[in-house]
Every structure is written in C-alpha cells, then in structure tokens.
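Run log, item B.
One chain of 241 residues. Sequence copied directly from the ordering sheet:
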Amino acid sequence: MTDVTLLQIVLANLAVAAGACLQGVAGYGIGTLSAPLLFLISPLFVPGPLTLNAMVLTVLLLLRNRANLSFREVRFAIGGDVVGTLLAAGTLVVLSADGFELAFGLLILTAVGLSVAGLRPPLSPRSSVLAGAASGYMGTITAVGGPPIALIYQNESGPLVRANLSAFFLFASSASIVALVLSGYIQARELMLFAVTVPGVFAGYLLSGVLVHRIPFTALRPVILGIAAIAGAAAVVRGLS
C-alpha cells in the first residue's frame, strides 16, 4: 500500500483503539477522538475507513448493551439522521479536496463548540430529530457524529446511553457508508485502509470492557476536546492554504 506507511498504519490503529475504548466507556467517542487524530496521521483515513470501523464497533457495543435498549426514543433520532445524511451526501459531491479539508475542520470545531457550550436540551421527539439530523450531517462528512446526539442523552444513565447511542450509531454509520459510496468517498483504497485498521476496533472494544466502570468520562473530556480542536484548526488552515 503506497499511499500510507507502516508507521502511519500502526499510529492509525492506536488512534482507532483509543476512540473505540472511549466509546465503549462513554457511549460515543470513536469519531470525536479518532477522526482528528487520523486526519493528522493521514487524511486518507477519514471519513470512509473510520466510518466502516465505527459500524463494526457499534455492532459489538449494541450486542454488549442490548438489554438496556429503548428503541422508542431512538427512532426519532434515526428519522433526523436520514435527512442529515442526504444533505451531507449532496455536500460531498460538490466538495473539492481543499474544500473537504476546510469543511472537515469547521465541522470538527463545531462539534467541539457543541460539547463545551453547556447546552442541556431535553430528551424529546423534537430534540431527537434535530440532534439526529445534525449528527447525520456531521458524521457523514467527518465521522464525528457523537456530540449532537450526546447532548440530549447527557442526563441519562450510563447503560441507557451506551445502548441507545449504539443503536443510533449503527443505523447512522450504515446510512453514512451508503452516502460515502455513492459520492465516491469509499472505494477500494478505503476498504484496504479499513482492513488494516479494524484490529484497533477490537483492541479498544476489549479494553473498554475492563475500564467501563473504572474511568469517568468527565476526566478525559478536556483532553479529547483539546485534541479535536487542534486537529480541526489544522484542517481549516490546510483547506485555506
């Protein structure tokens, strides 16, 4: 594989493992943490390969947390996700390479802003639809769809959050993959990059099973958002230059 080096593949697996572990503990995070890191390692790893990895992870986490699933609440977010994903697919079709980097950076910074804004919307059908749409749009373009949907679940219990977000992200990842294939962002190269980084998903998933009740997400949050902000700013600079 001439587009990336062995060192980049190793680093990418570490980034995916860290994000997968975070999502196993908090309910979301593979996008928020891994996407910015992968972009810095090589933009080729996002959004396609990471979205494929995210789908594998959500299947594993949904199986682990299925007893706490409440699908009635998730269905509204899924409806919003369909709209957001369709809008994202249209955006990707018209973006140039530089335009993608600029959009990637701006959406990453938007995700960081949503995470630190202190917003506490209620878990309702309306907020679920809006959060689902925002998550679908951001997740398809950047693989970072967690912050919008996490806002409406921030006051819920850990098991419910992990189960419901896993169900939502399974649908969202599947829809995003379809949109990425149709817009040309997932082809043979992306499938190869997914194949060499999916071991990171399994490593992070297994590690999260050990740490899920030992590490509070609040302790990691500033570090994660700081990494995302730096990578988002770097992507904006690259896109503008």
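Observations after the first pass:
- The first helix runs from residue 6 to 26.
- The mean pLDDT is 87.
Flagged for discussion on Thursday.
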